[in-house]
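Exercise 7.
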Amino acid sequence: SPEIMLGHPFTEAIDMWSLDCIAAAMYLGALLYPGLGEYEMIRYIMETQGQLPDTMLNHGCKTPQFFKRNVDSTTSVWKLKTPEEYHKETGKQPMENRFWKFTSLDGLLHTRPISNPNSADKIAEMADARMFVDMLKAMLPNPLIDYISELDGLILQEDIIFLGQEFLIPPRVGSVSLN
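Solution. The predicted structure, written as tokens, is:
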């Protein structure tokens, strides 16, 4: 998850990212964000989902490793370093290793051929693919503005609707102190 790569503490948010990335990998047969390092993964996430919110970047202890202050922008305080800037500062050369390059999650709709374009199932298969991509987009909001607060609202609900099926989430157990 971007939070972990930026140095935030571990939270439930990483579980949503993990679930989303695993589901996308199963659909694609390849990793959605296959970076060899954190810089590449952050770059791929941003190319697909847009600028990470300043609220996330401002609190990341590792944000300055990947971003620089953006004094010219009226929309974001931070700007991702270019691959050249990152290489110059770290000595690590970012590598392009994606099989699929997406500008949005909708790009997933164009990665798999419909099994039988002449069949009556074509419409259903296309609808299933659209529902899957919509589910991924709901799990990883685009852009990621207010990502943490949206995720907190989802996690605190008593149930989740998943492709028309209702699954109950077990109640949370309070934290335990070792003192």
